Amino acid sequence: ARFGADRRVHLHQMAASEATGEARLHFPWAGAGGASLSPETSVIQGTSAHGAESEVIATTTLDAFAGAVGVEDIDLLKLDIEGHEWKALTGAAGLVAAGRIGAIQIEIGAAALPAGISLYRFWHHLHEAFDCALVMTHGLRRIDAYLPDLECFYAASTFVFFRRTPPSRA
Q1: CB-based contact 91:119 (threshold 8 Å)
Q2: What span, in angstroms and rounded, lies between the C-alpha atoms of 66 and 73?
Q3: CB of 80 within 8 A of CB of 4?
Q4: Beta-strand (E) ranges in 2-145?
Q5: Chain centroid offset of residue 61 CA
Q6: Do 117 and 108 form a contact (C-beta atoms < 8 A)?
Q7: pLDDT digits 0-9 by tens, 126-169
Q8: If phi over 0 gives left and psi between -120 and 50 gives alpha, with beta otherwise, what is residue 152?
């Protein structure tokens, strides 16, 4: 409702994932933030017992979505999707491999635990083509090497991976 009247905004009621199909979206109550495709997320976040409510939603890969709507390049792909970031990034493998994403921002916190996701997984997958920085209150802190101390599930940490070579505009 907040964005629907803006002609520059195009709303799509679906989830970014590793495959096109359907999934169950869990949430503690209607309209609550922190909805997740993982029913355990709301337990970890202390908002509900195993996602008290849910609904079936469409899923798509970011590769398929970009192709369907004509997106050639993405300057910033921001993934704050309650533990589903890895699956969404998996669904963007073609965009990443083609150098069509300039930066990827992810949030990793307790919501990632049910999916077994950590910063290490993203680092290992992206570090050859991307530089990494931790988003902090007063700016970015460049991360030159992965260290286990960077993992923090108590509070969410936000990381940005910047492509070393900008996306091609060909």
Answers
A1: no
A2: 9
A3: no
A4: 15-16, 21-27, 53-60, 74-79, 101-108, 130-136, 139-143
A5: 12
A6: yes
A7: 999 999 999 999 999 999 999 999 998 877 789 999 988 765 55
A8: beta
